[in-house]
């Protein structure tokens, strides 16, 4: 390394160090407490192989919703990701699947809800035995229900290039076709966090 380049590199390193020292006390007195910040970028950057451009290729559509997930809901999201991989599909299929489940059941594996039930809808995707999705036991199995949803997704010509809500609606045929879009960011965050875990 020549002397001029070496001095430049050392000078830049010195500036970076001085900047870190100078910003330390200032950051300690910032208005936003650092314990409330979530290190999402650090967690996600530690997991190579997730192509974030594939997760939301069209950008999110409309206002986004987000819910706090409990351990069971996270387990169901992970089950959807595992079934997606087993189906040979990519991260985008997992985003569509998780967003669909967030809309249909809030990632809860719902059994029969009595009078509150929407017909005979069950499971993560609120699939109906009477519509040919499978038996109640199959539909309430997260792997089976995900693979059934994704089998329908694969039959949608060009699903990879569609906005999420259009792809999900084509499979689900919901009375609220635009509702899936509101979960795209949270679904993408879950896939980025858990795809390689």
Helix content: 40-55%
Which range does the strand content fall in?
under 5%
Query: Which radius of gyration do the C-alpha atoms yield?
Result: 22 Å
Low-pLDDT parts are 1-47
* Average pLDDT, all residues: 78
H/E element string? HHHHHHHHH
Q: Can you give a write-up of this model?
A:
With 197 residues, the chain is mainly alpha-helical. It folds into two domains: 3-31; 65-194. It has helices at residues 3-28, 40-45, 52-55, 71-86, 91-105, 136-139, 142-154, 164-172, 184-194. Helix 4 crosses helix 5 (91-105) and helix 4 (71-86) crosses helix 7 (142-154). The radius of gyration is 22 Å and the shape is globular. The chain starts with a helix and ends with a helix. Mean pLDDT is 78; it is low at 1-47.
List the helices and strands and how they pair.
Layout: H1 3-28, H2 40-45, H3 52-55, H4 71-86, H5 91-105, H6 136-139, H7 142-154, H8 164-172, H9 184-194
Helix pairs in contact: 4-5, 4-7, 5-8, 5-9
Protein name: Secreted protein
Signal peptide: 1-30
Keywords: Signal
């Amino acid at each position: 390394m020549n002397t001029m380049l070496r001095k430049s590199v050392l000078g830049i390193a010195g500036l970076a160090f001085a900047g870190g020292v100078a910003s330390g006390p200032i950051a300690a007195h910032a208005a936003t407490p650092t314990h409330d910040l979530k290190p999402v970028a650090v967690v996600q950057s530690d997991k190579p192989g997730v192509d974030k451009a594939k997760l939301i290729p069209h950008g999110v559509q409309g206002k986004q919703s987000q819910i706090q997930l409990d351990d069971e809901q996270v387990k169901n999201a992970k089950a959807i990701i595992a079934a997606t991989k087993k189906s040979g599909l990519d991260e985008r299929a997992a985003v569509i699947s998780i967003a669909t489940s967030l809309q249909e059941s809030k990632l809860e594996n719902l059994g029969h809800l009595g009078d509150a039930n929407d017909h005979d809808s069950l499971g993560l995707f609120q699939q109906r035995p009477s519509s040919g999705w499978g038996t109640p036991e199959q539909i309430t199995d997260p792997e089976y229900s995900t693979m059934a949803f994704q089998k329908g997704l694969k039959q949608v010509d060009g699903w990879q290039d569609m906005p999420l809500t259009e792809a999900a609606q084509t499979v689900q045929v919901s009375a609220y076709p635009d509702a899936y879009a509101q979960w795209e960011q949270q679904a993408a965050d879950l896939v980025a966090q858990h795809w390689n875990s």
